[in-house]
Design brief:
Number of strands: 32
Radius of gyration: 36 Å
Mean pLDDT: 80
Structural class: alpha+beta
Largest sheet: 11 strands, mixed
Strand content: 15-25%
Helix content: 40-55%
Length: about 1000
């Protein structure tokens, strides 16, 4: 969609193009296509703001230009989709098969070979590249440069997944038998409940899948290469082995390649290696074995971004043989682990299936021995088996999790599957990728050393000795800022709304933003001091200098670079506004400060300047400079990240940082975040990690706070080691390198804005706005959901067990059938789903985030719960049997007695919902629970449905209900209220006794803590 946003100036218009966001290829395509159109004089597209500025002749209007942009966009999408398998008439499965059948490519240590040797091995040429014939031959031999498409869940597979459980299978069998024995209505009720569960699950999961797929970014579709001695632009999928890539800033690398020329070339490899700082590239061959991916400075990799300079590189791997392709293969090999709730609900369901089959057989045998009819007993037995498997359980669990997904979506958290919400609530360890997750993945100036002062830079403020400094009152600081702007290749433009748009390398962008925060008009400053000459750094010279014309017809030399090299060419420095000689003691003090800042994992630059006359001969301008100071930059920690780590620790969740950065950088970030759980921060480097046995890694995994210099395969190892140690693991990340670990973790969390498509595809949860703080909302919601589902399961088991006890006891004693088959199904339908669902919507308990996560091996219903469930079921059953006994004495065995038993048990079960609201709080407790309007509505509504069954003749006839008198009503009321009062009174006194011993419990926990600490 193209939206005109500024059209007030004739001949000039600005448009918003949503597809332009983060798409350098679309930027180039729009600029190139529009520039060719008659009447258009200037075009500038910005992929960061999604805006495009167009200047045009006055014979055109902004509507015509907007229509033209829409046509160009349409053509661009047709072009970019031309290689989709659907467009080629090939299914995704067949398309992936073509890629899988491609001939194996040579795996060599290209980084250890010289550039000329690589060119010779690949039969290519640095000057002319491949010939068209050789390129076509390689394309046919090795296949297209495209990764196999990730398998996505189809609508059909999502729907089928809703029926994959033993309880649903048993209900299906019960429905089938009911149809065969003439119980069509029974079957309809059973199938209706199963279908309701499936519809809720399918609707929720399919909607989440669609939203997550909509986040896919537009990939670069074309690449510049040298073929037949010419620079040409070809589709990225047609890049082959031996192609010579032409590299320039802003372009994504199409394939893995060995550099053969590098002119000040740098690339952002954070998506692949996790290294946040752009890497300066070289062409020389490397020496050594097992050189980590991030240290192979003469290689570039598919999917990384060129941030500065230019160069040429020979393609050595394409498609699945690239490093990105290998990661995708690891993603395919990684297996997702079933979440605790899913596993436990499966276990409960399987156990109830066995119980149901046993009860079915027992009651059927007893009935036949008592002389009841075979068909009658078969119906009753099936009904009892259905009663043993609460039909409401899957619906309640599914709906509760679906409501959790809805709440998460309000907080910009997209959840792919229902179980992922619950799983976050049981997470014990959270592994966090540093770059782009804990940090912002962009450089910022954080510290300046000038005027012998340490100046901290934070939120646009310059702070020294706890006082704010105005740069315009400090000559040294202002001069340092000005020189940082002038000796800088970043491009700066000003939007109509006053917002600066800065494009360039991360380091130079940071210097520009520092100046903007200081109040410097960057554009005006550059106009005041026009650029005359630029001297870029090289492999053996880590200094950049620029020469500028000054208003008084002198020339200003602005210099920045490696502090040790810059200070060596300085003879003076600024101190208190005066230029004074730079002594040896001053140099040593600067060196000490440089080491101090570097020790804090900062990227440090030295800044200096000088003035020269236009008549000065020679090119050695980089001498006799005036030293200004040191500038320290870092990838800043995301706002709120430190507080979030504290919240995780308070919630009993261990935090682990995994990064591709060097150990000193990782250590500094971890210390700032206060990542350590114990006084000593434990850090493990990948060089040590690779020497560990799997057993040793499992033993160490839950003791390490930081893993540094980690590769994608290492991340997967770490997650699997933590899982082997019995931990429920969540993994957060945004890069390609995080994908295997994201998939293997019980909960994978990816970033929606800054994240890569690969990471989002395998993640269970996507943070749409990249705010990591929303994870605490998810944790809270997950824990509450689990607690509430426990309450619902407790309620369902207690009430359904009461039905079994009533039926089994009456059959064993020869008292007839208190409830017929249709009454049992009606009872389950009325008292299971809505009251149980209302329990699952209880408000979170205040201490939900101050308690440790539960043990994943702990069953959803603990052994200690069974005694309580049995007691509650017994009170409900005895009270119902007492009412049934009264009715038998008065009316005899028959419909009237069954009616009294049916309504007594229904009413008792509905009131029992109140007892199940809390395991600790009784209706007699002083501390009242918060109001639950859903519970009130469920109880009143269910009583209303029961009243309809008594008053509406067709329903009364279906359920075989007879009229009741006042005495019957009083008996039913007493039978329903008695279990509620007994259960609440016993609960009150049970927990009153437990609360009298807090000091003993606290002492026990303290003793355990001391034992644990001493054991460490």
């Amino acid at each position: 969609m193209v939206q005109a946003i500024h059209t007030s100036i004739e001949g000039r218009a600005r448009y918003k193009v949503n597809e332009l966001y983060r798409s350098p290829s679309l930027k180039k395509y729009l600029e190139r296509s529009l520039s060719k159109q008659a009447g258009i004089t200037y075009v500038s597209a910005n992929p960061l703001t999604s805006n495009i500025l167009v200047n045009y002749n006055r014979d055109k209007n902004h509507k015509q230009i907007g229509s033209l942009i829409e046509k160009i966009l349409l053509h661009y999408h047709e072009k970019s989709e031309s290689f989709q398998p659907e467009k080629l008439g090939t299914s995704k499965k067949s398309f992936n098969k073509i890629i899988d059948n491609a001939e194996e490519q040579k795996i060599q240590k290209w980084h250890l070979m010289t550039a000329n040797s690589v060119v010779d091995v690949l039969n290519t040429s640095k000057i002319s590249g491949l010939s068209s014939e050789s390129a076509a031959e390689n394309l046919s031999k090795y296949g297209p440069n495209v990764l196999a498409q990730a398998a996505t869940r189809s609508d059909l597979s999502i729907l089928i997944d809703q029926f994959k459980s033993l309880p649903v299978a048993l209900l299906g069998v019960a429905a089938g038998i009911s149809i065969l024995t003439g119980g069509v209505i029974d079957a309809v009720v059973i199938i209706g409940v199963v279908g309701l569960n499936a519809v809720i699950g399918y609707a929720t999961e399919s909607q989440s899948e669609k939203i997550i797929h909509s986040l896919k970014s537009q990939e670069q579709t074309s690449t510049w290469v040298i073929r037949d001695g010419k620079q040409i632009e070809i589709p990225t999928e047609n890049v082959v082995l031996g192609d010579i890539l032409f590299l320039k800033p802003g372009s994504y690398v199409a394939a893995d390649a060995r550099l053969i020329e590098a002119d000040n070339l740098s690339s952002d490899e954070s998506a692949l290696t996790g290294e946040s700082i752009p890497v300066t590239k070289i062409t020389a061959s490397l020496i050594g074995e097992d050189i980590p991916l991030g240290d192979r400075l003469n290689m570039i990799y598919k999917g990384t971004l060129i941030t500065g300079g230019q160069g040429l590189a020979a393609v050595v791997s394409t498609a699945k043989f690239t490093e990105m392709g290998k990661i995708q293969q690891m993603v395919g090999e990684a297996t997702a682990i079933q979440t605790p709730l899913a596993r436990q609900l499966d276990e409960v369901g399987s156990q109830l299936v066995l119980i149901g089959m046993g009860i079915c057989g027992l009651v059927f045998a007893m009935g036949v021995l008592r002389g009841y009819g075979l068909v009658q007993m078969l119906k009753s037995s099936i009904s009892l088996a259905v009663a043993a498997v609460p039909e409401g359980l899957p619906t309640i669990a599914t709906t509760t999790l679906a409501l959790g997904i809805r709440d998460m979506r309000k907080n910009n958290v997209l959840v792919r599957s229902l179980s992922a919400v619950e799983a976050l609530g049981s997470v014990q360890t959270i592994c966090m990728d540093k770059t782009g997750t804990l940090t912002e993945n962009k450089m910022s100036v954080v510290e300046i050393y000038a005027k012998t002062k340490h100046i901290r830079v934070s939120d646009g403020k310059f702070i020294a000795d706890e006082e704010n400094i105005n740069p315009y009152t400090c000559d040294e600081l202002l001069k340092l800022i000005h020189v940082s702007v002038l000796c800088n290749e970043s491009q700066v433009s000003l939007e109509g709304d006053g917002e600066y748009i800065v494009t360039g390398s991360a380091t130079e962008n940071a210097l520009i933003y520092m100046a903007i925060s200081a109040g410097v008009d960057v554009i005006e400053l550059r106009q005041k001091y026009p650029l005359l000459q630029t001297n870029l750094r090289s492999e053996n010279r880590n200094i950049m200098s620029t020469i500028h014309q000054t208003p008084d017809r002198h020339q200003l030399v602005a210099v920045k670079g490696n502090p040790a090299e810059v200070v060596q060419i300085c003879q003076k420095w600024m101190r208190d506004g005066q230029v004074v000689p730079l002594t040896e003691e001053d140099r040593q003090a600067i060196a000490i400060e440089n080491d101090r800042m570097a020790g804090k994992a900062l990227r440090v630059l030295g800044v200096a300047y000088s003035y020269i006359d236009e008549t000065k001969n020679g090119n050695n301008y980089e001498s006799d400079l005036i030293w200004l100071g040191l500038v320290g930059m870092a990838d800043p920690i995301r706002k709120g990240a430190k507080e979030l780590i504290g919240d995780f620790h308070e919630a009993g969740i261990d935090t682990v940082m995994i990064t591709g950065d060097q150990s000193p950088t990782a250590y500094a970030i971890a210390k700032e975040l206060e990542l350590n759980r114990y006084p000593q921060l434990e850090i493990l480097d990948s060089t040590n990690l690779n020497n560990l046995t799997p057993e040793a890694l499992i033993a160490l995994s839950d003791k390490v706070d930081v893993f540094a210099r980690i590769s994608p395969s290492n991340k997967l190892q770490i997650v699997q080691a933590l899982q082997a140690a019995g931990k429920v693991v969540a993994m957060t990340g945004d890069g390609i390198n995080d994908a295997p670990a994201l998939k293997a973790a019980q909960v994978g969390v990816a970033m929606g804005k800054s994240g890569t498509d690969v990471a989002r595809e395998v993640a269970d949860i996507v943070l749409e706005d990249d705010r990591l703080e929303t994870m605490m909302i998810a944790v809270s919601r997950g824990r509450t959901i689990y607690n509430n589902i426990r309450k619902s399961v407790h309620f369902l088991l207690a009430t359904n067990l009461s039905e079994i006890i009533v039926m089994t006891t009456a059959t064993a004693l020869g008292l007839g059938e208190p409830l017929n088959a249709i009454q049992l199904l009606w009872l389950n339908l009325v008292t299971d789903i809505f009251p149980g669902l209302s329990l699952a919507m209880e408000a979170p308990e205040p201490e939900v985030l101050s308690q440790p996560p539960r043990n994943p091996d702990e069953p959803i219903i603990k052994n200690s719960d069974f005694g309580r469930i049995a007691f509650e079921s017994a009170t409900l059953s005895l009270s119902t049997l007492a009412a049934y006994g009264y009715a038998i004495l008065r009316y005899g065995i028959g419909p009237q007695a069954s009616t009294v038993a049916f309504i007594s048990l229904t009413s008792g079960q509905l009131l029992h919902t109140i007892s199940c609201r809390s395991e600790k709080h009784s209706i007699f407790s002083q501390e009242k629970l918060p109001n639950n309007p859903y519970l009130n509505a469920a109880i009143v509504g269910s009583f209303g449905i029961q009243l309809l069954a008594i008053t509406i003749p067709p329903l009364r006839s279906l359920l075989k209900i007879t009229p009741l008198n006042i005495v019957d009503g009083a008996v039913i009321t007493g039978s329903a209220l008695l279990p509620l009062l007994v259960n609440e009174i016993t609960k009150y006194y049970t927990f009153l006794e437990k609360d009298e011993l807090p000091d003993i419990k606290a002492q026990t926990n303290t003793d355990k803590l001391f034992v644990s600490e001493s054991a460490r």
